[in-house]
């Protein structure tokens, strides 16, 4: 619920209604949020950035109201940004595995060789799985989730190919164009993790650059590693088939016009690699 969703923000006197009153769901939600906030401030909640920021309010020198307002904006920016781009990256991975089964096979062979088949990969295995890391780098390059990057402000006048870019202007780095440079990434439209595998290929700027580089890059890469490695260890992904048994080949078309790239909905089949892998999956905590 956003701060504009409730009628109480238009008619403030409604704040005096009791929680049980019909239509006062906003007040029941607020009481629950207040209770959770108290738990976090007392240090009894699971560790999180919001909890840490709430605990630091007394030392911040700010009023409680101002500090909480800043915390709301920080949380409201970080959580949606991190979740949306991570989900988009994972679906790009699924799309790539559907279209490029050879990359999937190589990733599975590496996991079977390094990790074995009696457990799923963990973060401790990351440095020992260079091809899985190459798959992740290629996901970031092949279909960057922020194809136009983040806005930057020019700190001094600059000239680019005869064009004056004045100080204070807002510019967008064209990540899509950068990742399509054939001199750096041959056959850029193809998904090819080998371009990063045991090579010094320049990483794609999918997380941005400079002072506005994504602050959650390491978390995103770790989350993507666990997701990619676990899925490849336990599942096979392949093209779906229509009612006549013909393979359905998905496209890389975007879901909609947005600053964040999401693949358009596509059909695919995903199945455990074996009965043994089904047992591994079933043993995971709910």
Automatic annotation (TrEMBL):
Its cofactor is heme. Its EC number is 1.14.-.-. It holds the Pfam family p450. InterPro entries: Cyt_P450 (IPR001128), Cyt_P450_CS (IPR017972), Cyt_P450_E_grp-I (IPR002401), Cyt_P450_sf (IPR036396), Cytochrome_P450_fung (IPR050364). Pathway: Secondary metabolite biosynthesis. It is an enzyme of class 1 (oxidoreductase). Keywords: Heme, Iron, Metal-binding, Monooxygenase, Oxidoreductase. Coiled coil: none annotated. GO terms for molecular function: heme binding; iron ion binding; monooxygenase activity; oxidoreductase activity, acting on paired donors, with incorporation or reduction of molecular oxygen. Belongs to the cytochrome P450 family. PANTHER family: P450, PUTATIVE (EUROFUNG)-RELATED, P450, PUTATIVE (EUROFUNG)-RELATED-RELATED. This is O-methylsterigmatocystin oxidoreductase Short=OMST oxidoreductase.
């Amino acid at each position: 619920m956003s701060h504009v969703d409730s009628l109480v923000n238009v008619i403030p006197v409604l704040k005096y209604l009791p929680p049980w009153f019909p239509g006062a769901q906003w007040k029941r939600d607020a009481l629950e949020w207040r209770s959770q906030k108290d738990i976090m401030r007392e240090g009894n909640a699971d560790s999180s950035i919001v909890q840490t920021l709430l605990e630091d309010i007394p030392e911040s020198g700010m009023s409680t109201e101002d500090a909480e307002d800043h915390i709301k904006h920080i949380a409201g920016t970080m959580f949606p940004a991190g979740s949306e781009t991570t989900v988009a990256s994972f679906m790009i991975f699924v799309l790539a595995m559907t279209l490029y089964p050879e990359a999937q096979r190589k990733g599975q062979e590496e996991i079977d060789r390094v990790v074995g088949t009696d457990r799923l990969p963990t973060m401790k295995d990351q440095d020992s799985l260079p091809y899985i890391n190459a798959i992740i780098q290629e996901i970031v390059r092949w279909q960057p989730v922020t194809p136009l990057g983040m806005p930057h402000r020019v700190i001094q006048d600059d000239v680019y190919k005869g064009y004056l870019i004045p100080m204070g202007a807002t510019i967008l780095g064209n990540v899509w164009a950068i990742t399509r440079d054939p001199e750096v990434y041959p056959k850029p439209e193809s998904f090819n993790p080998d371009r990063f595998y045991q090579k010094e290929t320049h990483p794609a700027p999918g997380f941005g650059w400079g002072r506005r580089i994504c602050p959650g890059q390491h978390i995103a890469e770790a989350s993507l590693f666990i997701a990619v490695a676990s899925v490849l260890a336990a599942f096979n992904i392949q093209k779906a088939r229509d009612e006549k048994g013909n393979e359905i080949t998905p496209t890389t078309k975007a879901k909609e016009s947005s600053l964040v790239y999401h693949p358009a909905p596509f059909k695919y089949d995903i199945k455990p690699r074996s009965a043994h892998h089904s047992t591994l999956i079933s043993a995971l905590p709910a």
